[in-house]
Structure formats: C-alpha cells, structure tokens
Amino acid sequence: MTQHLATPADVPTTGTHTGWWRDAVIYQVYPRSFADGDGDGMGDLEGVRSRLPYLRDLGVDAVWLSPFYASPQADAGYDVADYRAIDPMFGSLHDADAVIREAHALGLRIIVDLVPNHSSDQHEWFQRALREGPGSPLRERYHFRPGKGADGALPPNDWESIFGGPAWTRTENPDGTPGDWYLHLFAPEQPDFNWEHPAVRDEFRSILRFWLDMGVDGFRVDVAHGLVKAAGLPDIGAHDQLKLLGNDVMPFFDQDGVHEIYRSWRKVLSEYDGERVLVAEAWTPTVDRTANYVRPDEMHQAFNFQYLGTHWDATELRTVIDASLAAMRPVGAPTTWVLSNHDVTRHATRFANPAGLGTQLREAGDRELGLRRARAATLLMLALPGSAYVYQGEELGLPDVTDLPDEVRQDPSFWRASGQDGFRDGCRVPIPWTVEGSSYGFGAGGSWLPQPATWGALSVEAQTGDPGSTLELYRSALAVRRAQPGLGAGEDIQWLDAPEGVLAFRRDGFVCTANTTGRAISVPLPGRFLLSNEPVAPGADTVELPADTTVWWAV
Ligand code: GLC
C-alpha cells in the first residue's frame, strides 16, 4: 500500500467555520430508559440529572433529550399535549431547570426535542376542535376534511400512515353522527398540524422562545421534513407507499415550503446569545436534499440517515462518506454521523446480521461479530470530520433486545399491521448501570420493558476499569478525539490507497484505517499507534490489521 493524497479536491480546507456544534459529540438520552430517579420503573429527569457526571466523564459535548413533555405517551412522548409542561412521569419544570443548570455547570450543552409536525390528540387545540364540531376555527389548525364516497365514509385521500393503515381517522360530531376525517401521518393519537395557519407558526416560535429562555442550547426537530403538505393534499396513486419513502419526494414529506419555517426559526435563535442550534430529523431521498435543511439561514445540522443505513462494507462506506461531505460543502454545514437512535435496531445487532437486512430487525444474529464490527464502526465514525451522535447504551455495546414477548411491546406501530416501524422497543430497553440489583441500577423499582438476564454483565459498573470493554473504548476514543488536533474538526478527508475492503484516510496529524473484511490484512505501517477496537501489534514497517478492526494512528 503506497500512501498518497487523493485528488486535490480532497485536501482539507482551512477551518474558517466556528461553532461548538461543528465537531460536537452529542449523546442521545431517551429519558424513559436512561435512569429512574423515583423508582416507578420509568426513567425521568431526576435520573438524567443524577447521571450527568457520567456523561461528562464519558467525554461527550452535548446531550439531546428525547421528549419529556406532558403527553399521554401514545408514541412514547412524541405525542405532545402541552409543549410547555413536563409530564409528571418525568418530573417538573423545576427538574428540567436543574438538568439544564447542572449540565451547564459540567460543561455539557442541552438539546431538547421539538415535535412540530403533530400534537397529541389530547392537546387543548385538538380537543376543542373536536368538541366544537364542524366550523370550529380550531379545526383549521389541523387537517380536517370531509370523507369521500357516499356518506363520506372513505378517507379524503389515499395517504398511508407511517405506522400502517390509512393516514386519516374519522371523527364523531358532537351530536354523535359520523363527522369529518383528520390527517395523522403517524398514530391516530398524533394529528398533524396545518402549518399554513399563522396561529401554528406563531405558537411554535413562542414555544422555541419558552425553551430558549429556559436556557437550552438547541432543538432536535422531529419530522422536520413533514410540516408542509402539498397543496390540495393530492392522492399518491400507489399502494404500499412506505416503500416509496426515502426514494422520492412525497406530497407530505420534504416539500420545499418547509424551509421558510426554518428560516423564521433561525431568526428567533439568533436573538439569543450562546450559539443555540437547530438539528433536523429530515428523512429525505438524498443527502443533497438533506443539505437544503442546513443552508446558512436555516438549521445548523441534519442527521445523516444515509450513513446510518450503510452496511459495514468499505466500498459502500466510502461512497456515502464522500457523498455526505460533498453535499454539505456547498452549504457550509458540518456533516453529521450517526449509527443508532431510538427508532432503529442498534448497530451492534444490525452488523450481527447478514448485509441486506434493514434497520428493524428481530434476529439477534452473530452477537460477537456484531459487537466487534460495532466497535470498529464507532471508531470510524468518530474519526470523520463533523459532529457525531451516540445513542445511550451504545457505549456499553448493547445489542437490540430482539426477543421481547409481544405482550410487553409498547411501540404503537407494532400494533398497527404493516407499518414502517414496529420493532423499536428492542433499542429502548432501560440501560444497565450495575451488575446486580433492581433493574441493574436503572432504578429502585422495575423497568418498563424487561431487561435481559445478560444486562448486568454489560453494565457501566461491569465495564468500568476493564481496558477491553466497550465503555472504556468509548472513553478513550472521546478523550483522544478531544486531545488530537484535527480529529472531528475540518470538513474534508484525504483518502489513502488501501487494499480492497480497507478504508484508509488522513486528517490533520492523523490516519484512520478500517478493515471491514473478515480476515487480517497486512499494510505498511501508517504511523504511531493510538487506538483500536482489537489488539494490534505494529511491526517495524508493516502492521497486520485484524478483521473488522479500525485503528487510529498519529502521523
Ligand atoms: C420521529 C421520532 C419517532 C416518532 C416519530 C413521530 O421519527 O424519532 O420516534 O415515532 O417521529 O413523532
């Protein structure tokens, strides 16, 4: 292997951009499954507060909290009844304030989840819209429509819900007769807002201000691609529409009109000091369309779901890495990287299964192989320029819990046949903190989803101090990333020649090699060994890269 620079276009640009978020490692807390402060079996804000020092010591820069707002929990809190209140199950505004203040005191930023595409059906506006019946001005804030066919018994159009079934539910009029239908791209308990209505736009700017005044450092914007629907709500004309998602612009997703909303939000953020940020959860057909969300006057970051969906394969990875960097370059936004979140099978389990299986799995696969590849994939991700997202428990190498009995499952899409999701409970099982004890240290009570008997051996306590553990690998990687100039920062990488199945690239003072194959491969020594997910024994001039192993080198 001769090492040389690739094309001149790959030479790093000088870092003219600033902002803490550009190379931040952001840790996703799923509050119901992180730590339970009051022993009711459900994680809460007091649990989060008490574990902030753990996150500081792990070495992350920011914490993104999935929703903790007042909610009937039809979709685990992504159905918000009151955007300015905390659900009692998670605590109070006082607890939220404590989390924000203590995080700041520890040098951690806090990003909260904002859910603007839909509310809960228990939201005051929707309840009034139902109560007041046809003609209620509140109905204009959602999408109410008469049904088609004789007696309006058919849905207004052919759109299907992401969770399966029609995207419409019929209402009953106050007098008990069958009434209009309302749109819900997700569960029936999640009616979509009508973003053409000025009151909706005003309300969300006000909600942004409420949380900015509380001191949060930013927002992860849920379903950011969904707010605007094509005029007239046209039929799609196809069955099995979920297969079209991600391949095409749909009349309810990725409409150009969404961008005006984010431009107005950016203006709100710019009234505040301290570099507050907006992060788009935007599922779009291409990374180029994702880049539209992070133009200079819109959001700051967007999740890179194309990267999340990539197999552990050098050619595929290089293609998506290049495409991601190229898409973000013209808009000047940092690229982001993510391997796991609360909606997909954990990457330790994805990589344990044959390539080709999607992000919703029920098969445990080859656990040892999956963990080994997951550790290698994490080191690769943390070596790329930009910001990286870590989902709670991946630092413990947790697999998905693929054998949850049906009767304990809570994902609403599991209960609606043919939906896109359905197996998301497997990545939401409360995480283990201790080897033994009630719910492995999650809390003094039980745990809202059952934890496997293997959880204790994977706990924070079991892994702390064990140099071979996944937790210590994350701690070391994040410490090196902080200490090593150039890691994370910048916007480009220089690919180096490498044998088939191996990725090799150079950053400022640093080389990363990733052997994605199942066999050891010998290469010329790239530099001074820094870190790897498997033991590596560099020779004088060459080194054997073990199977499924990423190595960081100083040069
Ligand atoms: C987002 C969330 C997911 C939720 C959906 C509807 O995709 O990440 O958990 O079910 O939006 O709010």
Describe this structure in words.
Helix 11 packs parallel to helix 13 (470-483). The chain has helices spanning 45-50, 52-58, 93-105, 124-132, 198-214, 258-270, 287-291, 305-308, 314-328, 347-350, 367-382, 460-463, 470-483; strands spanning 25-29, 62-65, 69-70, 82-86, 109-114, 144-145, 168-172, 178-183, 218-221, 277-280, 301-302, 336-338, 387-391, 494-495, 502-507, 510-515, 521-524, 528-532, 542-545, 549-554. The protein contains 13 helices and 20 strands. It folds into two domains: 18-116 and 199-480, Glycosidases (TIM Barrel, Alpha-Beta Barrel), CATH 3.20.20; 124-183, Oligo-1,6-glucosidase, domain 2 (Alpha-Beta Complex), CATH 3.90.400.10. The protein has 555 residues and is of the alpha/beta class. The strands form five sheets. Strands 11-10-9-5-2-1-13-12 form an eight-stranded parallel β-sheet. Mean pLDDT is 93; it is low at 1-15. Strand 9 (218-221), helix 6 and strand 10 (277-280) form a beta-alpha-beta unit. Alpha-D-glucopyranose is lined by residues 75, 78, 115, 186, 222-223, 281, 342-343.
What's the topology here?
Layout: E1 25-29, H1 45-50, H2 52-58, E2 62-65, E3 69-70, E4 82-86, H3 93-105, E5 109-114, H4 124-132, E6 144-145, E7 168-172, E8 178-183, H5 198-214, E9 218-221, H6 258-270, E10 277-280, H7 287-291, E11 301-302, H8 305-308, H9 314-328, E12 336-338, H10 347-350, H11 367-382, E13 387-391, H12 460-463, H13 470-483, E14 494-495, E15 502-507, E16 510-515, E17 521-524, E18 528-532, E19 542-545, E20 549-554
Parallel strand pairs: 1-2, 1-13, 2-5, 5-9, 9-10, 10-11, 12-13
Antiparallel strand pairs: 3-4, 6-8, 7-8, 14-15, 15-16, 16-20, 17-19, 18-20
Helix pairs in contact: 5-6, 11-13
